[in-house]
Amino acid sequence: MELTHFDENGKAVMVDVSGKNVTRRTARAAGKIRVSSGVMNAVLGGSAEKGDVLGAARIAGIMAAKKTSELIPLCHLLPLDSVRISFECDKEAGTISAECTVSNTGKTGVEMEALTGVSVSLLTIYDMCKAIDKRMEIGDIRLIEKHGGKSGDFYA
Amino acid sequence: MELTHFDENGKAVMVDVSGKNVTRRTARAAGKIRVSSGVMNAVLGGSAEKGDVLGAARIAGIMAAKKTSELIPLCHLLPLDSVRISFECDKEAGTISAECTVSNTGKTGVEMEALTGVSVSLLTIYDMCKAIDKRMEIGDIRLIEKHGGKSGDFYA
Amino acid sequence: MELTHFDENGKAVMVDVSGKNVTRRTARAAGKIRVSSGVMNAVLGGSAEKGDVLGAARIAGIMAAKKTSELIPLCHLLPLDSVRISFECDKEAGTISAECTVSNTGKTGVEMEALTGVSVSLLTIYDMCKAIDKRMEIGDIRLIEKHGGKSGDFYA
Amino acid sequence: MELTHFDENGKAVMVDVSGKNVTRRTARAAGKIRVSSGVMNAVLGGSAEKGDVLGAARIAGIMAAKKTSELIPLCHLLPLDSVRISFECDKEAGTISAECTVSNTGKTGVEMEALTGVSVSLLTIYDMCKAIDKRMEIGDIRLIEKHGGKSGDFYA
Amino acid sequence: MELTHFDENGKAVMVDVSGKNVTRRTARAAGKIRVSSGVMNAVLGGSAEKGDVLGAARIAGIMAAKKTSELIPLCHLLPLDSVRISFECDKEAGTISAECTVSNTGKTGVEMEALTGVSVSLLTIYDMCKAIDKRMEIGDIRLIEKHGGKSGDFYA
Amino acid sequence: MELTHFDENGKAVMVDVSGKNVTRRTARAAGKIRVSSGVMNAVLGGSAEKGDVLGAARIAGIMAAKKTSELIPLCHLLPLDSVRISFECDKEAGTISAECTVSNTGKTGVEMEALTGVSVSLLTIYDMCKAIDKRMEIGDIRLIEKHGGKSGDFYA
């Protein structure tokens, strides 16, 4: 098993995908942020503005997924077919989960786009709630599933 | 306790910092990625290319810290005084830890920059090693300490 | 009266502001989009998602205000103190008005940031509603007021 | 008629275009800026540098069209085949009109790119002339025609 | 022979490539930076950090190649298949040479991407070594070879 | 003499400038592109559009100077006070020279901004003329002078 992002001399490269097939590919990633009850109440709060934190985090995550190749040095720029982000607030557990599903039609897959979408949406929640509590913790960021391409289906 | 990123009507705003003092501010954030032994060996591998994964991840994290206000919708653009990222590989635990320290001289602090630097450096490790194993998991992303500004010192 | 963005040979320059005073400056710009009743109903619609179009447009406008110097060739990069965008839906008139208020503490003002914030938030409304009607029209984009700096107060 | 940029729960998504056909698509948008005679004279002025304001505005509009997906949250990144911007100065009416024509070969069209190109080129004219007069007004931004794709031809 | 980036009225355009064939295209560009022996020793220095200057310059060049269409006004955005940058240090001559090879599958070629990758990697070396010597000089930036597309093979 | 962009363990850092004085700083850089007589004639051509190549290259260089910290990994983001780019066509020598002067008021200088402005303006000339001749060569990119800051005046 080898790192593919390096050439025969161990130098970083953006790997050549020119020989790969153009196929439909999808990836789904997830993560969560652990928040205090004060933050959870503010996010879920019974006012008209309910949902604005998550609404902003969703937009931020979608825009970040599109920016992945600018952030991750050796990622290919991939025109995306779709990006979708959903959140789930678990009041008991004190966690907000984020899930990002991305698809494209191309020569390489969109795992990094899905993971970046999740990460930036969770960072946005942190930013918007940090005046209440700075002890939030972001974790469990991982690939859930992936389809298409030579390596085939992947399930976590 | 209130969300500061919303106005009196519950609409998202980039909060007004014009009345705040220009002071030196620092923030330190951390996080880690859980990797298989195959990935750990590749990262630590005894060859000339040793360190290249972490070298690229460090550059990516520093560049991302500078891009924070482009990623997090309501973050202020802050010219940074310094950005520093370090990694620690724990072969036993199967984890690579990242720490990002940022400082600025301004009206608002750099927590988000430090957290973004950590997140993107860990995502870069994922990207460079995902050909070996896609089951890596990123977590424990949190603020460790913060100094300067009206809210004073913070320690996790 | 002369164009300031050109040097003595008529060549475009980013004008030298080094001799100008650092002062607090604000600018407020406005604009509107004329929409069909179908679009207006969708934007105002009585469902849970009410406000999502305007919520996304607000985030887009704030982020664009921060990006102004990347879009307008001779604009200075200005760290902004605040950005605020508000909308008003006039069902009778069939218009959605946007207003963007920006402030900074610097050597030059933020008119372009306010105008850019308005423009991009209106373009975002267009984008999100264009499946219903492509005949929307964006107009009345103008500076409403401006304070601070050598040229003093301006009111439209 | 429904807003397509939302999923079944009313959450914003970047809509899935994976099932759409790759076809040649074009869009043409227009807009104008109302200027004082002082500004008009400066833009048209009888010197060698004549045209520099419009030249810079053209470049800005072309570059902005390419940046559309970074500005408009739910826009797909679309590699463009062509971008063309033209201006027409009407001294009588006191207006400078801009028109932007964009084409691509892809699964979704380029209306937003054409509208963004027009908007940013007009904002650039504002920026370069605002030392003479800040009362310029940008308006009449609209889609003129559109071809290709499932929805077929559109004429304003 | 004519400049293709202008229309029939001499106005800048992003040229229409919609009628061109999608083919595999590659370009290789090179350049060098002349450095003092102090800089050369620091870059080549016998310590663990050996190679870090070139490692950072390589990452910077790869990322810049992906950003070419944001920098060069009339360049098309091209999803790249591969980017590869190599360096060669000639201690005698006091030069560090950089070479950048880029490939894509598209309607227009990647000369500008290769040249931009070389330029930014050399600028990064300058930046990282300028505390030692500011008299470094960057030159010999040129296209070495190019394949694919209607104009066929090119060799310098 | 040491590389300042590395910490005590040889790891890349964005160096801490927080202790440095805020002073006015300027830098001037230059470079040139060697062109065929066909290219020179097209650039200088006796038509109304004369100057458009250089006009576009000037805008590109100014915008690139503002983007320097996004391109050069360890560069600080510096709000610039001014950017100015000039060209000189030497028909005999077959060269077009570019010069970029940048100033800021900050804790670190703008050499990299001036060098980046020169490089990108020359790359833009290459791009706009490459249909005529691909054998153009960019060189002599160097810092000409620099003022302000602890290291004082520098003249090449």
What would you report as the Rg of chain A, rounded to the nearest angstrom?
17 Å
How would a crystallographer describe the biggest sheet of chain A?
5 strands, antiparallel
Instruction: Write down how many β-strands of chain A occur, each being a DSSP E stretch of 2 or more residues.
Output: 5
* Oligomeric form: homohexamer
The shape of chain A, in one word, is: elongated
Would you identify the regions of chain A where 5 or more consecutive residues have pLDDT less than 50? Answer: 46-50
Tally of alpha and pi helices of chain A: 4
Query: pLDDT average of chain A, as an integer?
Result: 92
Question: What is the terminal-to-terminal distance of chain A?
Answer: 19 Å
Residues in β-strands, percent of chain A: 25-35%
**Strand order within the widest beta sheet of chain A:** 2-3-1-4-5
CATH-defined superfamily of chain A: Molybdopterin cofactor biosynthesis C (MoaC) domain
Which pair of chains forms the biggest interface, and how many residues does each contribute? A-B, 58 and 58 residues
Please bin the fraction of helical residues of chain A: 25-40%
CATH topology of chain A: Alpha-Beta Plaits
Secondary-structure-derived class of chain A = alpha+beta
Which CATH architecture of chain A would you pick? 2-Layer Sandwich
